[in-house]
From TrEMBL:
It comes from the Bacteria. The keyword Flavoprotein applies. Keywords: Flavoprotein, FMN. It holds the Pfam family Flavodoxin_2. The keyword Translocase does not apply. PANTHER family: NAD(P)H-DEPENDENT FMN-CONTAINING OXIDOREDUCTASE YWQN-RELATED. Residues 1-155 form the Flavodoxin-like fold domain. Gene3D superfamilies: 3.40.50.360. This is Flavodoxin-like fold.
Length: 231
């Protein structure tokens, strides 16, 4: 299986989100290519629509997005590893997401409950997984925009791992909380390989905050206060 990981974190290899993605990969027991969007020259989409009306799906810009779009085309599974920024993707990663409109048809169609251009990938057989982490303590609401985008763009069957309270990954002291989360992400990878899905039980572990909200908020506020005092 050809797997492409698109890492939207500016922390690159030190990304919390990528740590969770790596645990998922361990469960998948496959190798993958990683692209770090922060390092790439990716222009915004110019909305010229040449890809829809002139070039049969080829983007006419000449930048590094073209290489990534080709890698996406060739992959069997694309894992978007995206830290949550303002309830969406970081702008350099969003620029790449916008550029994938060249995978879609110009023709609008009426689906069951939406009208869209988005057929998903060209032949519809490609799989997509979204792995995201956020510093806020809630999954519900917080990740809704990003999940909606990815599912509308790449298919309702896009599997998701959404890690709230990701600040807990930043300290070795909280490993007793984060290691079980990573174990669950690994299990999700194993299940995904076997069935193309994450089981309900595993999804429940991944979707539940690691510690109570009030405790997490107190912890984060104390950490930022201490950082401010130092400066
Ligand atoms: C500009 C910016 C916006 C952010 N917006 C959100 C947000 O809307 N919701 C949230 O839960 N966390 C938000 N965060 C926190 C990051 O999502 C969080 O720290 C994440 O775990 C970083 O992952 P990474 O280490 O993979 O980059 C934001 C951080 C930054 C820098």
């Amino acid at each position: 299986m050809k797997i492409l990981i698109i890492n939207g974190s500016p922390y690159k290899e030190n990304s919390t989100t990528l740590k969770i993605t790596r645990a998922f990969m361990e469960g998948l027991n496959e190798t993958a290519e990683i692209v770090h969007t922060i390092d790439l020259d990716i222009n915004p989409c110019r909305a010229c629509y040449a890809c829809w009306v002139k070039t049969n799906g080829k983007c006419v810009q000449n930048d590094e997005a073209i290489t990534v779009l080709n890698k996406i085309r060739e992959a069997d599974l694309v894992i978007w590893s995206i830290p949550l920024y303002c309830y969406s993707a970081p702008s350099h990663c969003k620029a790449l997401m916008d550029r994938t409109v060249c995978f879609n048809s110009a023709e609008m169609y009426l689906g069951d409950d939406e009208c869209t251009h988005h057929y998903g990938y060209e032949d519809g057989s490609k799989k997509t997984v979204l792995i995201s982490s956020g510093g806020l303590p809630d999954v519900k609401g917080n990740f809704d925009g990003l999940v909606f985008q990815l599912k509308r763009m790449f298919g309702e069957n896009t599997a998701t791992i959404l890690c709230a309270e990701a600040g807990l990954f930043l300290s070795p002291e909280t490993e007793p909380l984060t290691l079980p989360y990573l174990e669950a992400a690994k299990k999700a990878g194993t299940e995904y390989k076997a069935t193309g899905l994450i089981s309900k039980d595993t999804q429940m572990i991944l979707d539940v905050p690691m510690i109570p909200t009030d405790m997490y908020i107190a912890n984060v506020n104390a950490t930022f206060s201490a950082m401010k005092e130092k400066n």
